Amino acid sequence: MSNQTLEIRWHGRGGQGAKTAALLLADVAWKTGAHVQGFPEYGPERMGAPITAYNRISRDVIRVHSNIYTPDLVVVVDETLLESVDVTAGLSKNGAIIINTAKSKEEIMPHLKGFEGAVYVVDARKISVETLGKYFPNSPMLAAAVAVSRVMEKDEFIKEMRSSYEHKFAKKPEVIEGNMQALIQTFDALEDDLQGSKGLIA
Amino acid sequence: MAIRDRMSGNEAVAYAIKQVNPDVMPAFPITPSTEIPQLVSTYIANGECDTEFIPVESEHSSMSATLGAEAAGARSLTATSSCGLALMWEELLLAASNRMPCVLALVNRTLSGPININCDHTDGMGARDTGWIQIYAENNQEAYDNFIQAYPIAEDERVQLPVMICQDGFITSHAVENIELLEDDKVSSFVGTYNPEEYLLKPGEPMAMGPYSVSNYAMEARKNQELALEASKEVIIEVAKKYKELTGRGFELFEEYRTQDADYVMVIIGSAAGTAKQAVDDMRAKGKKVGVIKLRVFRPFPAFEIAQALKNCKAVAIMDRCESYNGNGGPLGSEIMAGLYRERIYIEAVNYIYGLAGRDFTVDHVYAIFDELEDAVVNGKKPEQFKYIGLRDAMTR
């Protein structure tokens, strides 16, 4: 909305945790002293249906309560959505898109309707299966959103996420370490692509 | 020191309930308010408050049980949305006419059909003539602040009426945002203990509650109820002043945002008021004299006060997130226009219906509405006075 507000749109399918990732991002960004919003847009509530979630992150009070139409960053948690959802709609060419896919950036580009901004690919399935033994794409995609936007630096993010996960998974402590590894691996996987990037925060 | 936190609107209201620690909460789940009883029952299970939670089989029962508890002398409440509120219809009227100072956390959602779970004000507006005080919130912070003020308003001896604390379903109920919370002890001392003068379980003082009233008496009872609702205006303002001393956050019956010298004003309720304020700032930066009145208290309706606040503007856009199906306007539009006429204030007034069943309302809509008002006034056009905004192209009129 204003130049000082970072706006993020998440595309996922019901059950993949896109909403949870948006709420967790709001949570960690809040810890940096920012004003935050994290909210879902609900369609039919069922597993597998396309869902959208949003974040606003700003140094100023956020008053707008509408969806986001001109995001700075788009996170696509499920690449099959590229066929049915116009994921780059309204996305600024100064912005960025992150796609969960095993494909290379070059292979994915033709599906982005000529989008001219920065494109990042993350193989969240591979990272998730390696670290958690199961496919939960939201932790890798959350880490990717933080790495690309630079809402906060890696070390601070990792530290804050540990305490968030310790709270969130108080009854399932066995999944904390795997999720932490998923975050770190995602940062590492994006390191080369992000060389020289200043992030999306003004 | 305020406690800085971040939480959703539902979490904020549940947290306020925990801090107020009422005696009894009967509840039945319905989207998008389900999290409120869910979180409160977790607080109870964890020993963080000792409210008696009654899981019931319907909203008809949840409000009935709330009244039963209140009649017995217990501070009580429930939470609901949409069809849940509709199912409480009979009991809503009983709550107000029996002068029960209970509280209802309403998370506004549309009513069917087509069946839809998203926000508009059809539920709350449908209950506008049940005798309840209705207070609406722009965001999670206000939902929290309004809830803490609810019992001091409801239980005041000049009022003795039930209070509905409303917030927008999903838009604020499910949005995590920054919030400032009060310490538990500050909430306790602000809300105080409930010492009703009369109640069913008062030893040695048997009484009847809700008996049949013959025509000789019933109309006087109704008039007394109306007087109490009128009197609640000053109590709402007094409680808000005390709350400001505690928190620094001030409230009135409505908030006037940059209206002082405004030629064009939008009157709006709930979360969309924040969007409208942002649009006003954007347009002010370009030299447009625009402002927003955010209505906080819909019942009692501040008809005279709003009319006076509008008297110096050239045109007003009155925003209804609810259709009245009368062909003439929404509830807010009809009531404000009646108020303007009674005060003999004749300004251009356009009543817009927006945001039904979760249709998004954006700053662009606000710009377009102010442009339309200005065009009408500057170019002497007679605008259509009741219209929809945000419809798909072919249906926009």
Instruction: Find the structural class of chain A using helix and strand composition.
Output: alpha/beta
Oligomer: heterodimer
The amount of beta strand of chain A, in percent, is 15-25%
For CATH, the homologous superfamily of the largest domain in chain B is named as: Thiamin diphosphate (ThDP)-binding fold, Pyr/PP domains
Largest sheet of chain A: 6 strands, mixed
If classified by CATH, what would the architecture of chain A be? 3-Layer(aba) Sandwich
Would you state the CATH class of the largest domain in chain B? Alpha Beta
CATH level-four homologous superfamily name of chain A: Pyruvate-ferredoxin oxidoreductase, PFOR, domain III
Unreliable spans of chain B are none
| CA-based gyration radius of chain B | 21 Å
Largest sheet strand order of chain B: 9-11-10-13-14-15
What percent of residues of chain A adopt helix (DSSP H or I)? 25-40%
* Shape estimate of chain A: globular
SSE pattern of chain B? EHEHEHEHHEHEHEEHHEEHEEHEHEHE
Low-confidence stretches of chain A: none
Summarize the model shown.
The complex is a heterodimer of chains A (202) and B (397). With 202 residues, chain A is an alpha/beta fold. Chain A has seven helices and six strands.
Q: What features would you describe in this structure?
A:
The complex is a heterodimer of chains A (202) and B (397). With 202 residues, chain A is an alpha/beta fold. In chain A, 36% of the residues lie in helices and 19% in strands. Chain A has one domain: Pyruvate-ferredoxin oxidoreductase, PFOR, domain III (Pyruvate-ferredoxin Oxidoreductase, domain 3, 3-Layer(aba) Sandwich). Chain A has seven helices and six strands. In chain A, helix 4 runs antiparallel to helix 7 and helix 5 crosses helix 7. Chain A is globular, with a radius of gyration of 16 Å. By secondary structure, chain B is an alpha/beta fold. Helices cover 41% and strands 18% of the residues of chain B. Chain B has a six-stranded mixed sheet with strand order 9-11-10-13-14-15, with helices on both faces. A five-stranded mixed sheet of chain B has the order 4-5-7-6-12, sandwiched between helices. Chain B has a two-stranded antiparallel sheet with strand order 1-8. In chain B, helix 12 (331-342) links the parallel strand 13 (315-320) and strand 14 (348-353). The mean pLDDT of chain B is 96. The A-B interface holds A 1, 23, 26-27, 30, 35-42, 45, 61-67, 69 and B 6, 117-118, 138-139, 168, 170-172, 174-178, 271-272, 274-275, 277-278, 358, 360-363. Strand 2 (35-41) of chain A pairs antiparallel with strand 8 of chain B.
